[in-house]
Amino acid sequence: MTVIEGSEYSIFMIEIYSEYPRTRAKAQETGAARYYTGIPCVAGHTGLRDTKRSYCLECHNARHRNWYSGNKDRVKVSSKEYREKDPDGLRNRKRKTVLARFDRDPVKVWAMHAATQIRDRSNKKNIPCSVVWQDLVAIHSVFCPIFGVELVYWNKSKKCGDSASIDRIVPELGYVPGNIVVISDRANSIKNNASAEELYRIADWLRPLEESCRTELLGKSDSV
Ligand SMILES: [Zn+2]
Q: Distance from CA of residue 40 to its chain's centroid?
């Protein structure tokens, strides 16, 4: 792959990797584990490089995948042993890495994570999807527009009612710019794939029932 300096693609890549040092020397100086040169490797990847050993991460991952496919059983046994040896230690180390990353820029990390999830889900379910993480950063908000709660930009393992969640306004149009909003997870799970009309019907049906239940049951418990 040839990357023309100043082309749309190279600008996009530089933007993604803008936080990384541009040379290995600079990375060693600042103690960064990865750096980004923008110069293609022998296989043509222009992604990140490892500071300690200077290899291209994509090549390294490909080598690893290759090795893993031939050693699956071995890995299963040894990782099980590793987990059992010190379960809390592993959990804490993983947590620390995630926390540090979120600390730097929670919205960006959330957006990159969410964009990947959306893409995977859309591919599986055949939903149109053209949003990239930059779109998600652009439309994110501090508060849920429905419930007004402060949105939590966190990873999925820590999901709660206030977690930021991406909703398709008209579900069948898919994840395309203009059709997505960021709302709280609670609002999203209530809305699900309902239309405004359907939600009004549910509310209209529920309100009198809720009120009569309340007066009836509370009235009863008062008299007992
Ligand atoms: Zn490479």
A: 27
Q: Does pTM surpass 0.85?
A: no
Q: How far, in Å, from the CA of 93 to the mean position of ligand 1?
A: 28
Quick check: 171 and 193 in contact, CB under 8 A? yes
Give distance in angstroms: CA of 41 to centre of ligand 1. Answer: 5
The CA 175 to ligand 1 mean position distance, Å, reads: 31
∠ CA 158-144-115, rounded to 5°: 55
Ligand 1 centroid to Cα of residue 216, in Å, is: 70
Chain segment 100-125, per-residue pLDDT in tens: 877 778 888 889 889 999 999 999 99
Architecture of domain 106-193: 2-Layer Sandwich (3.30)
User: In whole angstroms, what is the distance from residue 218 CA to residue 199 CA?
Assistant: 27
User: Which tops the pLDDT comparison, 60 or 93?
Assistant: 60
Ligand 1 centroid vs 116 CA: distance in angstroms?
22
Nearest-angstrom CA–CA distance, 159 and 152: 9
The sign of the dihedral angle between the CA atoms of 121, 180, 159, 202 is negative
Cα angle 95, 98, 102; round to 5: 135
Extents of the domains making up the chain: 8-67, 74-102, 106-193
Contacts 24+ apart (CB under 8 A), 81-85: none
Which single residue is written with the structure tokens 């042993």? 81
